[in-house]
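Here is an idea for our session: we take a single protein and study its fold together. Once you have written the record down, we can walk along the chain together.
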Amino acid sequence: MVKIRITSRGIKKTLQKFDYLQAIAEYVWNGFDARATIVEIKAVWNALGGMERLIISDNGEGIDRTVLERKFTPFYESEKQIDPNNRVRMSSAMHGKNGIGRLTFHSFCSQATWNTTYKAGPVNQTYSIHIASESLDSYTLTGNAEGKAKTGTSVTFDHIHKEIDLTELKQFLSKEFGWFLELHAGKKFGIIMETGEYLDYSGIIGAKENIELAHPATKTKFAVKYIRWTERINNEYSRLYFLDSRKREKYKQPTSFNNKGDSFYHSVYIQSKLFDDFDFMSEEQYGQQEMAFGLSRKSEAFQYLLEEINHLISGKRKPFLKSHSDLIISELIASDAFPAFKDTPEDSARQEELKHVIQELYRVEPRIFARLNPEQKKVIVHMLNLIMETADRERFYHVLNDIIKLEGPERQELAELLKSNIG
């Protein structure tokens, strides 16, 4: 028996962070972290139709027994390290950290067993790891057989005490892994569900488009895939993913359209030979020779790419916000945020003008209407109505600008909007 280096404080903090959906997702991530291309989820049912056992298997590298203690026993306790909603990564190559997810089975079952096979020199070694929920601070090892079994790990969860809704699980996994599976779409990555079918996440794809770009001066080519998601992606911002000619991810960064207060969730995947030998990390000036080969972020080809991608996303976002503004009006009406208008042609016209201003204002700066309670919605709408009556456009513009710190095109668009629509 081996003791895990974790205190009761660490256990409690971790188990508070993960529900059964997040816990299962962590074991799937562990498979992909071990260089698996396929992760399979199977359920075993009892005679009464209840789930008796859950098995998550992968075709990864397995867990090398010689480094087991280093990989399995440390368990981080800091809030930032164990929070499943607080992970910042510059690439998606490694999702988890040592210890994260290893004990989260406690949230839905009483026992977990890892059967793993790894390559040990010229042969493959197979052994098992056992942890029970009543003794989370220790594990036992059994077996140490040589054989021809393929590498990989299968985790079996027994004595399930939490009702697992497979439909809910599929929806959660779609939001958790949709972007990742798209990132590796050319490598036949997949999650096989209990039904034997691959996880179908197409239901959360609102729009998808493939585009070819080429830098005019250097003829550098970029294969671009744009996806808009209908739902927020779990623990992943809207990002640009840069892949080399072999479709290996080299770097990722948030797009320029994060934290805008709207529901425009998107991912852009960019593949190019340019990224085969490219320094994404340094912002310093490079020598002329390196610049000529386009190895830095300051190269003309890369700057062209960023400009085109921003133009692409902006072009997709504007019509989305315009259509989404109708939903904002419906929400404001449902919250009884609009002032009482008389049943006269004049008041009807004022009401329609107010709706139009709100729609246009949302299109320019959605954050104005983000996360408002009913009272705040009423204040915003009534304030806009009063401004339309008093024509105090300049003061309103400066108030908004001080609150949300508008920059660039948004600042200019808002100024033009208030000049043309209010007063």
About this structure: Residues 335-421 form one domain. The two ends are 77 Å apart (CA to CA).
